[in-house]
Design goal:
739 residues, alpha+beta, Aldehyde Oxidoreductase, domain 3, Aldehyde Oxidoreductase, domain 4, seven-stranded mixed sheet, five-stranded mixed sheet, binds dioxothiomolybdenum(VI) ion
Length: 739
């Protein structure tokens, strides 16, 4: 009887016990003899230069081994490819580029000694006023280079239409709105850390990263060390959300310090330092203008954004091009983006970078249009449903967004919604109740990935790739995929990841890791079982020796032929072979020139806003996702719920406040940067419409890491409008905006 595959079922995390018992080792948990501790010194002005640093007291403080500053530097090289990261290296000059930048590294025997000494460093500056006001930069904003091949400004106009503004002017109905959101910080539970251990000219770096390979390459580039001599180990990552996809300068600085001191060195960032030494999501100001016929057919979509970046590099949000560009059918379409370079820390990828901000604007605007036209918001979206990527003739490899709307509306009870704003209260009349919905869209990305499958004489199979598990469940996904491809129980699969020495993998970002390893595991398993079959036929000690190739086949962990069924472990033992293995890359799938690849979803939520205090509270959330086949139903639900919670935080709570005079991030801590906690989060009903997307890849699997956070803030804003009649254009939706 064929074994029941765990693929698509709800599987508990195989690393769950390790995580809850403290057995899982994160970057800073690795211990070494003579381990020294680094502590960063950061600038306390926003722009200017360092005149002098008095390090005497720090150097004489107990336990201190070294105080590195621009006056006693470690040699580092600024990264040439600064996409997503900063464009300068610390300690190489005395310039202050932003408040909270690295200006020193104190290394001492203990963390406490290093922290104490860092506080004794006296720095004097020549300060200049930083450019820190986002709005003041609009007039001099510039068009950024293409992001992932998409130009920042694009127009698709019907024949005879001279401009998007003409198309809007000719539309029967128009709605226009400005939308804004503050800087947001990732605030992964695990702060960034680096532990560097040199031996024989090679360095091993323990650090939480989304991409062990990229991290190793980046560290080599920053330090000038031969890439072949940098080994990154990162088995567990306490959240990343894009901020551990690139390398921040604290990592190479620690590697260089360890080399200079001839001792292992570990540097752990404080929560406050993670705000400025690593990345954040840009602040974004957007304008959407929609033109439509009276019966709700879009005739023009115009979506422009300003996003902040840093004069010190990084990657700004790119909203319109990744949402309005791809979301709805419209004969006339304009997307545009400009960036404002400020003297602030460096923006980077943050969960659905671009789709997140863009969807808040377009999905709020679509709600406004629906209200204006008195058309149901789902019906309005269906009247403009795109079946080809707008402006092209490329159909989606698989698109079932219409089913998401249908299934979600049914499960949520959308039909009970009263479309008239401020018309529903709860039983005692204290809370205004509203419902809102929105669309989620995120590109299905494919990056090069290799996987090794190794069949071992003890009957286990090792499945490995240099990807990462940043809480996403990749350890379990690899085990499930291995069990499925080989037809063996989950318990016999030994996954391995989080190590740059494993088969090459771009890492876990762009919601692409599962979609990369899924076809990769299959291809490697096929190759490995073919090698096993050859061994069975060729090896004189094999019971299958000399049989015709067609008479022996692999199935469910065994070789089968001539009336015999022999497990691969037994066969390997009989033939005295420790293991057979194969490394393969997943086949590419359909041609991107012919197809568009995206995942989709629909959010539905109910909010309650207190009649007197304006306090908004979510009471229900339903999200339906179209992302191809789901590998682990339990982890996938968690992943989508986590994305929705990210959106709830964005909608109601989050925002990094920049002090305009100094460029200081004024609430760089978890007391004042508000994140959703359990009472802020209702039950989230997550469902999947599963259609194998075998045009995308042979495994039919797309990604889900970022999708849940696309559109979820708009769903909340739309529900708040339905509850109160107030349209909040400026996130977060705090109670003062509802009074
Ligand atoms: Mo994601 S922002 O690509 O880690």
């Amino acid at each position: 009887m064929p074994r029941r595959s765990p693929f698509g079922t709800a599987v508990n995390r195989i690393d769950g016990r390790l995580k809850v018992t403290g057995g899982a080792r994160y970057g800073a948990d690795f211990r070494f003899d003579r381990l020294a501790n680094g502590y960063l010194v950061v600038s306390t002005i926003g722009r200017g230069s360092i005149r002098s640093m008095d390090t005497g007291a720090a150097e004489h403080s107990p336990g201190v081994l070294a105080v590195f500053t621009p006056f006693n530097p470690l040699k580092l090289f600024a990264p040439a490819d600064a996409a997503g990261a900063q464009n300068w290296a610390p300690l190489q000059d005395t310039e202050i580029r932003y408040h909270g930048q690295i200006i020193g590294l104190v290394v001492a025997e203990t963390f406490e000694q290093a922290r104490n000494a860092a506080a004794l460093v006296r720095t004097s500056y020549d300060a200049r006023p930083p450019a820190a006001s986002f709005e003041a930069g609009f007039p001099t904003a510039t068009i950024p280079p293409p992001s992932f091949g998409e130009p920042a400004v694009q127009d698709f106009l019907a024949p005879g239409v001279s401009s998007i503004d003409d198309a809007l002017a000719a539309s029967e109905v128009t709605v226009t709105g400005d939308y804004s959101q503050p800087i947001e910080n990732h605030n992964a539970m695990e702060p960034h850390s680096t532990t560097a251990v040199w031996q024989d000219g090679h360095v091993t770096v323990y650090s939480g990263t989304q991409s062990p390979n990229r991290h190793a390459g980046d560290i080599a580039a920053w330090t000038g060390v031969d890439p072949a001599k940098v080994h990154v180990i990162s088995p567990f990552v306490g959240g990343g959300f894009g901020n551990k996809a690139t390398t921040w300068s604290c990592a190479p600085l620690t590697v260089a310090a360890a080399q200079a001191l001839g001792r292992p060195v570990r540097t752990v960032l404080t929560r406050e330092q993670t705000f400025t030494v690593t990345g954040h999501r840009s602040t974004v100001a957007q304008t959407v203008a929609l033109g439509a016929t009276r019966d709700g057919v879009l005739t023009a979509v115009k979506h422009d954004a300003y996003s902040s970046t840093s004069a010190s590099g990084g990657r700004p949000e790119s909203g319109p091009g990744t949402t309005s560009r791809v979301l709805y059918r419209s004969p006339n379409l304009h997307v545009g983006q400009k960036v404002v370079a400020l003297d602030v820390p460096v923006p980077t990828f943050m969960r659905a970078p671009g789709e997140n901000s863009g969807s808040f604007a377009i999905e709020s605007a679509m709600d406004e249009l629906a209200i204006r036209l008195r058309i149901d918001p789902i019906e309005l979206r269906m009247r403009n449903y795109a079946t080809v990527l707008p402006g092209t003739d490329r159909a989606w490899s698989s698109k079932h967004l219409d089913e998401c709307y249908r299934v979600g509306a049914e499960a949520f009870g959308w039909a009970r919604r009263n479309p008239v704003p401020r018309s529903v209260t709860n039983e005692d009349g204290e809370w205004l109740v509203g419902m809102g919905m929105s669309t989620a869209i995120y590109p299905a990305n494919r990056f090069a990935t290799s996987v090794k499958v190794r069949l071992q004489a003890d009957g286990t199979a090792a499945v490995s790739s240099a990807t990462a598990d940043l809480g996403t469940g990749m350890w379990t996904v690899l085990a499930i995929l291995g069990a499925d491809a080989l037809g063996i129980p989950l318990e016999r699969v030994r996954p391995d990841l989080g190590d740059s020495a494993l088969p090459n993998n771009y890492g876990a970002f762009g919601s692409a890791s599962t979609a990369g390893v899924a076809p990769g595991v299959r291809a490697a398993a096929d190759s490995a079982t073919r090698a096993l079959t050859r061994l069975a036929l060729d090896n004189p000690r094999s019971p299958f020796h000399g049989m015709a190739p067609d008479d022996v086949r692999y199935g469910d962990g065994s070789l089968i032929g001539g009336g015999r069924t022999i497990g691969f472990g037994t066969l390997l033992e009989l033939t005295g072979t420790p293991a057979v293995e194969a490394t393969e890359s997943g086949p590419a799938g359909g041609d991107p020139a012919k197809y568009a690849f995206h995942s989709f979803g629909a959010h539905f939520c109910e909010v309650r806003v207190h009649r007197l205090t304006g306090e908004p509270r979510l009471s229900r959330f339903t999200t339906v996702i179209d992302a191809g086949l789901i590998v682990n139903m339990k982890a996938a639900r968690s992943q989508i719920a986590g994305g929705v919670i990210f959106g709830i935080g964005q909608a109601l709570l989050e925002g990094t406040r920049v002090e305009a005079a100094t460029g200081r991030f004024a609430n760089a801590n978890l007391a004042e940067y508000l994140l959703p906690v359990n009472p802020d989060v209702p039950d989230i009903d997550v469902r999947f419409v599963q259609h194998a997307d075998t045009v995308f890849n042979p495994a039919g699997v797309r990604g889900i890491g970022e999708l849940g956070t696309v559109g979820s803030a708009a769903a909340v804003a739309n529900a708040v409008h339905n509850a109160t009649g107030r349209r909040v254009h400026d996130l977060p939706i705090t109670l003062d905006k509802l009074l």
